[in-house]
Protein: DNA-binding response regulator
Organism: Paenibacillus nasutitermitis
Amino acid sequence: MVKVMIVDDEYYVRMDVRTLIPWEQKGFQLTEDAVDGQDALQKISELGPDIVLLDISMPGMDGITLLGRLREQGFAGKIIVLSCHDDFSHVKEALLLGAQDYLLKHNLAPDMLEKALDSVVRKLEEERQETEQLYKWKAAAADSQQMYRRNFLQQMLQGYMTQPEPIREKLKELELTFPTAYGVVMVMQIHDAAQEKERRGSRAFDQVKTRLEERINTAFIDPSTGYCCENGEGQFVFLLGFAEMPSFLYLQNLLYALSSGVRGLLQNDYQLQASIGISRHCEAIGEIADYYRQAQEALAGVFFLGKGRVIHYSEITDYVNRPTAGFKEVELQLLAAVKEGGRIPALIGDIHEDLMRQKVSMEAMRNIHFEFVSFIKKLQRDHGIADQELFGGGASPYEVINQMETGEEIRLYITGILELASGIITSRSQRKLRKEIATAIAYMQEHYRDNLSLEILAAHINMNSAYFSNLFKKETDENFVAFLQKIRIEKAKQLLTGTQDKVYDIAAQVGIDNYHYFCKTFKQLTGMTPVQYRLLG
């Protein structure tokens, strides 16, 4: 509804106007009345009417004075003047001050008031539409400029533009007026971005990033000091410019204040955590791509130093070493720890701390972590542990580790998986089978090469085959055929690594005459072909 305020010092005039037309039926909502200009000035500010019916002659601040004050304050509503004066000088003055119409109180009729109100409502609607369109045009222009700025900076940061003069001309064209004699690049990464995008929704998360970019470029930096934009990979790039070489202390304080402010904004307003990588200072704008790489490498230091950090490039330049020992040197220790169970966290912790002390490169750390996963997968195959049982049926451990941002997260993940595997293996080894089933399994272990069947095994232990089938499944959690195939494949694995026999010969030796069926079963149980298993050793 359109809000209307009546301003008149005469009570009976206000009551007459209130009862002159059915306001609500016509789409209007009457606000509280005002009794003079001063009272109206305050109430207009508080109640925000769209239309004011204003008496010209009032004690204290009159209507003409109020019109002037409202014009000074930029009042967006419309004024219809009510007066007893049929005087052109009053009409002219009121219209010059912004009044939309001028009605005589002693000659006021319902149709006259409705006509005046309808005319004003049309003007309000036209202005609203014009304002919306203007806002859209301005927003489109701002978006377009932002897009051009982002595209240009991406070209510059990726090394496609290296000549100083064309860079300065383009910056000027894009109204980025920060100095270019010296510069510093910062790169900010929102942590757990993939999870946040899934939790909030892709569109909502993109809107958060857009608003964040806008707020950084208004509250923390401006075109005369630098610029921030998203680089298309979920990171925010800050390019700060200086006319003269800043002192070390000034630069440190500036970067600390900027980093703290932006990370605080993220935490307080969006409940997000971020880290920032900072380059060394750049003395040639044409070489900015090299310093962008430095900031990226500094940000990658989160892997070693942890999340929620501000990391300077100089802090991570030492992480370039190769590990002094290979993974095979700890494999026997890991197998013993899995057997014992309780030693796993301490052993993994010691290995991780030793690698951190050596300051091995990120590539080397990633390779070692993948070797841990390969060890786990081999452990899983050797003990017949299902993916669902060990990994919960989600993404593969290789994918999970690849998405983790810090070495500490990976250490905890690997520790948890190994402890779970150890628990499963221990539980299975401690389970006591019924004597008849144990006898049947021992027979299978000895005669796996033969053409075994459920009936032969049941007869061996003097048991009905149907009863034996149910009892075997209950005791071992597997049916007879699946259990026998696992025994045969385990024997095949020993032959593959311990002999040079042909694969088809090994298939026959373990009781599977069909070569293709053997290869299919082997891959189902181990995740690889017999040839691949043999190559892995």
Summary: The first strand starts at residue 2 and ends at 7. The chain has a mean pLDDT of 87. The radius of gyration is 40 Å.
